[in-house]
Every structure is written in C-alpha cells, then in structure tokens.
Amino acid sequence: MNPKIETLRSLEEFDLILRDIDSEDYQAVGFKGVKASSEFIKTAERERAKLTKKIDPQLLAQYHRIMKRYGGRVVVQVIREFCGGCYVKLPSELAVRCRTEVVACPNCGRFLFYVK
Ligand SMILES: [Zn+2]
Asked: pTM of whole model > 0.85?
C-alpha cells in the first residue's frame, strides 16, 4: 500500500475514534458508561495532529472534503475492479494503479486502496 494512503487511513481511524467517543450510538452497543480517559483523548488528538502534518495540504483538503460529504469511509478498499465506496466499476488501468499510487475514485472521489 502506498505510504500516503496508509497515513490517510490512519487519520480516518483517528477521526472515527474521536467521533465515537461522544457518540450515543457507540455507547448503545455496549460501551454505556465507559468513558475514554482524558489522557487517551489527549494522546489520540496529539497523534492525529502529528499525522496531519505528514500529509500534503492538497491531499488533506481532499480528505476533509470527502469526510464532510460522506461522514466516513474516506479511504476505501477496491474489490476486484469495483470501488468499495460507491460500487462502480473502475477503469482497469486505475484498479492497477491504486496498488501503488494515491488514486481517487473518479465517481465518488474516495481514496482507493488494494489488498491482495
Ligand atoms: Zn467510488
């Protein structure tokens, strides 16, 4: 996986963790009354900030746009030649390039990654 894509995926994970901390839905699935310690929250926020510094501003802006539009699943898996975010068939050439490069789905704009 392209290291930039790995960083974006990690950033997404942090964003979802920090969102779940306050979410009632998350508490409803069995974490009711479990509160994240302020130490954890601070650590997660610090690590998240470190990650954002590693990402090109242009990519980061694109990430935020997609996160805002879809509320998550910004970096999605390619399934065979289909986008795992919007399920359209990708051009073969793109499905190959996403194995090594930073590539966005031409339909939904999400970042693509490929797992063997
Ligand atoms: Zn897509």
From this structure: yes
